[in-house]
Structures are given as structure tokens and as C-alpha cells.
Amino acid sequence: MCDQTFVAITFGPCDSCSQNKPLMNIYLQNEPVNYCSLCVELMACQGLAKGETVSTLRAESENLKAKLEEERAKLHDVELHQVAEKVETLGQFVIKTRRTLKGHGNKVLCMDWCRDKRRMVSSSQVIMRSAAVCVLQEHAVTMPCTWVMACAYAPSGCVIACGGLDNKCSVYPLSLDKNENLAAKKKSVAMHTNYLSACSFTNSDMQLLTSSGDGTCALWDVESGQLLQSFHGHSADVLSLDLAPSETGNTFVSGGCDKKANVWDMRSGQNIQSFETHESDINSVKYYPSGDAFATGSDDATCRLYDLRADREVAIYSKESIIFGASSVDFSLSGRLLFAGYNDYNINVWDVLKGTRVAILFGHENRVSTVRVSPDGTAFCSGSWDNTLDFNPV
Amino acid sequence: MERVIVSMQDPDMGMKMRNQRLLITVIPHAMTGRDIVDWLIQKYTITEEEALHIGNFLVKYGYIYPLKEPRNLCLKQDETPYRFQTPYYWTSTRWPASELDYAIYLAKKNIRKQGELIEYEKECYNALHKRINHTWDFVVMQAREQLRASKQRRKADRIVLECQEQAYWLINRPPVRQIRLYRLVQSDRRATVVQSDVMLYMWCLPLKNKLCMFVWVCSFVKYCEQYQDHDPIMQGCLPSNPWITDDIMYWNMNSETVTMPTKLRVERWSFSFMELLNDPLGRKELLTYLEKEFSAENLCFWQACEEVRHGEASKIAAKVDEVYKQFLAPGASRWVNIDSKTMEKTLEGIKHPHRFVLDDAQMHIYFLMKKDSYPRYLKSELYKNLLAKAIVPQETKKSVFPFMRRQRHSSPSPALVTQTAEDNGKAKPSAAKANAGTASQI
């Protein structure tokens, strides 16, 4: 038997703040008391020297950053590709372009799939189009601004959101009447002070999450256009965001020009985690299907995988022969493959576990601006500055 | 791991322990390494190597500690004595091992016997002294008090406690960041930018989670393997990939309202509770099962909470009120079983309804379903029958005349579906007819 005699109360109401927390047994004036760790720290810090300036604090912050990296490096024992050595290597992939949509007259900037797996919306410099894929284009809407950089399909499939240099995100209801002027029904939802870089509906049609060049992300109520929550923490433009596929569904990740990828809690607006290992702007972030990790594509020509529980980068996907930045990344359904579109007109397909490149896709004649896998994983679509959208199943 | 430890300590079936002599004093309730290995072999009928492996883990995680050479954390299969660590110090109790505690521990050691601190401990001690200098008085005072209190105990107990504490600290070297936050919070309020930077560093991994890294990294491999068969790009899909053959049979078979789902789809429900809930057909099946178990109100409550969370802001108050009347009010028709504290908090919050007021209750019910109803559903006859009857589609034969293109039909727009449900009923049979005309065998 191990000693049970001196077991102290380990959990319960703290004597000073009366909250239920893990307790520490300390002595105050020779009396044993139970305080939670927060109260202990606060008490111990009383009577400390004041008068620290911003510069000293900043120096401390730099110090801590360095220490943090040191600590993280110590955990660098286990690498993903080492563990994945036992996994079967993937055979050579033959991916062919099956269909090309040529409806856009300008560079394709963004696209999104509908949850019915066959429709998508794509946006370009002037026009936003929604198309059912077995048939070609269904609707086209002319936008009032020049660059439409973000577009998203609502979960119900009835509504589309898009925005760009007009600093706004507008919502359009889709209707059946092809002749109806959709632009007339538009509704402005989000207002930023700089361009809109990405938008996404949360689990319903009623809430919209946007990221902007003004360095903030924001959560809006579609019905009233009200700002529900704003997220501050990036020190430069935020270029992309992605919602976590988790059970509680409360977090999202954003990547920006300050080389940081931040994970946020939607409810409180807090920045939960931050990752800063890229050497240049992060163009695109995407969650791994299980929600435990996310991948980023950046102008430093690498894509990286970050694990949220381990709080560090676990894999880098790069090759010496790739010198152009990655503009867009997406995972296949099982998370084994990472599709990344680059500015050198190619799409590289990476084996997520092993870190090796599985295939290259040529076929575009200009930068690949967006790559998206369909919701059921049957195909992926790539949009490019050569004005086309390519569909590629295997 | 804890189950093993607890069963080891069971008075009848557990380890045989006897008093060991360590230096001069007698340490009660100790056991030898050999005994541990033998007991593991006998209880779990495993090989010696495996037992040694498991035993090593128990020691490395701190559940058992060696008495003779405390710094050597491994299990030796001989007469070396070991003891169980008290549950107070178990890693699972998640007692935050802060700098302050470590400082107090080192100070105690220093006071008790000068020169007892070994090399790295001395370094830590000096570093801590510099870092948390402002609280040093507190640290020393606490150390003295604890020593004084322990002097009042019996010698054997004192030695035991010392051993336990020492073992604990050997496993856990604390993170070095927590105390920083409070310093800054109290000092300069103007330095908000720097503060928010520092706040991030609070969320760091304690070093003791080093061993968990391996588990996390392995989880990716496991996930990929589990979903490999379901990934159409990797394995192809049956009957055929609609993008390649223009045959939308695959989409039709997996649509939301199909009567008999495919086998892969039903299998996927067993991967996680979230998969089951995300699939509308899965949710319906779960509801049917829960109705048999008379706990369907749980799922309905969860769904109602989701609607509140994601619905229109203007309707929140009304929806919350409805939820209260249906699920939470005493004597409600579909009363859900939530623990009293959460219920109290929720009822209090309902007086000022906002989007997240039902979150705690929803979370409680979600985990209740996940831990209880979900595993039972997977073992139930309902699920097993469905799995047995589920379709495994045959691969469609490639058409003989490759130049004959199938007609491409536009799928019914979701906007159409919501506007006129009747039209939807008409559209589907016509699409099915069109496909039946083409040569595909199921």
C-alpha cells in the first residue's frame, strides 16, 4: 500500500478566491492553508518593484520568445516522417485534368465548393460565377469592385458570400431564375477598413467569418450585419482563414503577412496559439481533417504542418527545386495527400506523412491561385490566373 | 496505467510487499523489481520482455519510484527496492508543477543539508533565485515552515515523504514561464502589446509531456490509415468516380435521403461520434436507437442547442425560451438529465439569453451521449443489422463505346430543394430514370 496518511486536499475550493481549482498547501503565518496556484503566485508577487518600462518588457518578451523556441526544440525528438516510415509508400499517381471551365474573362482568384459536392462558386477580377459542374455555368454576377478575392458557399447551398477590394463582404441569395438580377438582392454584411482576403460561413448560413488586410478577423451576423466578435493579434494583413472541424466547433486558424499562423477561440476572441516558423507571408491555411493539425502554404516556397496539441511544427514540405511561393493548400479526405498550388504554374501533391512529393501537375499557364478538394473527396479543382478552372479526379 | 497501479495495490491479489531496509531506517511497503516483473507476467500473461517494458513505463511516468538510486529511472529486475508514488503526485491529477514549488523544494533541500544539491539542481536554484527574486522571501519562508511541520512527523514517514517528493521532481522539471505573466500584469498597464505577446507563452508544454509527442505524431498515421479506404483520390470509389465516368450513381447512392446506405458510409459512423452526427442519415439512425432506449430527448436537446448557437441573432431569445420550456423546466415533457450545478448555471444564464448560454448544458449532454449512448449504439443490433445489409456497390463496367458520352444532367439546386419540396420529389425519380437507362449493373 502506498501512504494515504498524508494525502492533502488536491482539488476543491481555494481559501482565498473560492474557485474550484487544483490546490497547493502552503503555510501563512505558521498556519497551513489551501490556495490555488493563481492565488499563490499573486500573493508571492506582492511588493515587487514597479516602474518597468515598455522597453524592458519588450526585451523580456524577446527573451521569452527565445526560451520558448529552445523549449520547443527540446521536444524535437520525434519527427512525423520517422514515425511514418512503417507506412506504405504511395504508388505513382496519375492525375488528369477532366474538365476545364473557361467562363471567366479574367484571373480566377478564389473558389469554394458547395456541400452538395457538385457545385462551386468561383470569383475573379470582376465576376463571380456559380456553376454546377456537370453542366457549365449557371449564374454570373458582376461585382462592383475590381478584385474579388474571397468567395464562399453557405452550408445550405442557397447563399453565396464574396468580397475583395471593396472592403466589404456581400451576401447573395441564389435563385433559380437565371434571368433574375442577383446583384439587386445583394446584402452587405461585413465592413473592414482594408481589402477582404478570405471569408467563410460557420456551420450555418447565419454567421460569416472574414479576414482582412487591416490585420483583423471578424465574425458577423448575416441577418443584421452586426459585428459579433473581432480578433486582433496579427501585426500585418491576414491572408487566409479556416474553421476547425472539431466537436465543439469553436476555433479557427488564420495566417498572415506577419509570418504568423494564429489559432483563435471564436467565442471569446482570444488568441489561443501562435506559430511563427515561416520565413515569409503565409498565403493559405487549412485544417487537417481530424482537426488536430493544420497546414500552411507560404511565399517562402514551403508548406508546413503544425500540430495543435504538441504546439509545434511537425513537418516541412519543400524541395530545392521549388523556389516559388505556395498560394493555396488543401488536404485530401483522409489527410494523406496535400495539394498545393504554386506561383510557378504547377500543383505539387505531397505525401503528408512521409514528407515527399508524390506528383506534379502541369496544365496551367499562369499562377495557380486556389486549390480546393471537393467535400466528398472525389476530385479537386484548381483556379488560376490563366482564367480557367481545372477539375482533376484520379 | 493507473488501473494497473491500483490493481497492483490490491491487498489480496496485489503485490506482496515487505519492509525493506534502507540504510538504517526501515521503509514500509516496498517491493523489489523482480516482484514487480513477476506480478505483471502473472496477472496479464505476457512475456518477461513485455513486462519489463511496461514496468519501465510505470517508472518513467512516476507511478513507481526506486529507493536506492532515485535518479536512475528504470526498472531493474532484481532486488532493488521500489515504492508506489502517492496519488497526490500522479501525473494524471495535473497538479501544475510551477516554478514556485520547485524553488521551495530546492530551498528546503538546501536548508536541510548544505551541499546536498547536485550540479544541475544548483544551477536551477541559482537561476530561480535570479528570476523570481522578488518572491524569494516567500520561498524561503515556505521552505522553513514545511521543514518545521515535517519535523513533527515520525522519522519513517518523513523519509517516505522526502522520497516521494524527490521522485516527483525528478520526473517533472517545471516550465519556466508561468510566473512571468503575473509580474507583467501587475507592473505596467501601458505595455499592452507586449503583455499580449507574453500571454501567448503561457500556453506552453511542460517538459513532462515529451513522451506524449510520440503519441500525437502517431495519431496522424492512425487517422490516415483509418480513412484511407474512404478517400476516393487514394482508393477510388465505387461504383465509379462521377468525374471520370460522368455517372452520378456514386452521388445518388450517398445522398442524404437514401433508404439503404453504402457499407463504407456505415463503417465511417464507427470512427467517431462526430462522424455519426455529421451524417444526417446517421443522426436519424441514432435517434431511432435512442427512442428505443428512452433517451431521445438528449439528441433533440443537442440539436436545439445547435440551432440556438448558429441561428439568427434576432430569434435567440425565443429559441432559448422554447428550449427551456421543452427540456429544462421542472416537469418539462422532454426533460434532460443534467447535473445540478450546470442546470443552476444555465437557468441563471437564461434570464439574460445570449448565443452561448446553453453551451455548458449542451457540452454535458454531448459528452454523455458520446461516452454512453454512442458505444452502446455501435454494439447494438440496429447498427449491426444495418452494417450487414449495407450496399457494397459494384464497379460499373466501362462502356463499350468510349465515344458515347452520357448525358450530363444538372443536379437539383439546393435553392430549389428548400423552395419547393414537391418539385424535389418529382426531380429525383426523373433523374433516376435517366440513369437507369444507361448500362450499369448494381
Automatic annotation (TrEMBL), chain A:
Report which residue ranges the record marks as coiled coil.
54-81
Signal peptide stretch: none
Pfam families (alphabetical): WD40_Gbeta (PF25391)
What keywords appear on the UniProt entry?
Answer: Coiled coil, Repeat, Transducer, WD repeat
Superkingdom to which the source organism belongs: Eukaryota
Q: Does the keyword Repeat apply?
A: yes
| Keyword Coiled coil tagged | yes
How does this protein assemble?
Answer: May interact with RGS9; this interaction stabilizes both proteins and increases RGS9 GTPase-activating protein (GAP) activity, hence accelerating the deactivation of D(2) dopamine receptor-mediated signaling.
Assigned protein family: Belongs to the WD repeat G protein beta family.
Q: What is this protein called?
A: G protein subunit beta 5
Query: What is the species of this protein?
Result: Pygocentrus nattereri (Red-bellied piranha)
From TrEMBL, chain B:
Give the span(s) annotated as Disordered. Answer: 406-442
User: One GO biological process from the UniProt record?
Assistant: negative regulation of signal transduction
Biased composition, Polar residues: where in the chain?
410-422
Which GO-annotated molecular functions does the record name? GTPase activator activity
Q: Where is it found, in Gene Ontology cellular component terms?
A: cytoplasm; neuron projection; plasma membrane
Q: The DEP domain covers which part of the protein?
A: 11-86
Nuclease among the record's keywords?
Answer: no
Q: Which PROSITE patterns match?
A: DEP, RGS
Q: Protein name, please? A: Regulator of G protein signaling 11
| Organism this protein belongs to | Pygocentrus nattereri
| Source lineage | Eukaryota, Metazoa, Chordata, Craniata, Vertebrata
